Amino acid sequence: MSLFGQDLPFLDALAPQDLRDLLAAGTTRRYRPGETMLRERDSTTFVLALRSGWSVVSVDTERGARLILALRGPGEVVGDLAAVDQGPRSASVTALSTVDAVVLPGERFRRFLAARPAATALIMRQLTSRLRSADGERRALASETVLQRLAARLVELVERAGRPTAQGTVVDLPLPQHDLASAIGATREAVAKALRPLREQGLVETGNRRLVITDAEPLRLLAAGRAAPPVGRSS
How confident is the model at residue 25 (pLDDT cuts 50, 70, 90)? Predict the structure, then answer.
């Protein structure tokens, strides 16, 4: 399972002239943190090419909770599925930080792909990667513990959004505990319980929208099921 795209971001993989043509076909827009960029089940078909900042892709569950599917950042496109099949939006996208994007009407995006087979191949590879990630997510929900899934997310955040410091690796994404819970299909209470022994053993430091991983290797072992769960101190 993965919160991040596995391949080179779509914009970064385009040929330079194709990238210039794509961006010239749209208009720029800035989204504030917390602002909805795309809304699940909407009938709009425009595509957003992300130039800076991070966003959260999520769906609403039948119980009224939110399940975070992915994080999308610079170089990626969102909304492309609805642009291609012209169906309702399959998920919502919300700005996690300030996001600068280029807004492309769905018709222009389809014309762009039709004229450039290489770009179409990139989009297909992106859609396939996301489908495989979704399959992996379902498998993890069915077979892994909350601690395993949390450890895997923490390692991924370290590797993809971490900033090394003297204190450890700081994750420069404002992900509160309820978002971590939404990203692994668990409750906030379950995540708080899983984080407690990790903090007590000095592997993780948490604060107000602050996350520091002081030692990622034990987390990798936990995520792979190759280490016993840490035991927290009794109260």
Answer: very high
Question: Which DSSP state fits 163?
Answer: E
The three-state secondary structure class of 23 is helix
Contacts of 112 by beta carbon, 8 Å cutoff, 6+ apart = 21, 22, 25, 104, 119
* Helix (H) or strand (E) run with residue 219 in it: helix 217-223
pLDDT computed for residue 234 by the predictor: 47
Helix H, strand E, coil C: the string for 59-93 is EECCCCCEEEEEEECCCCEECHHHHHHCCCCCCEE
Across 21-175, the runs of DSSP E, i.e. the strands, are: 27-31, 36-38, 47-52, 55-60, 66-72, 77-78, 92-95, 99-104, 162-165, 168-171
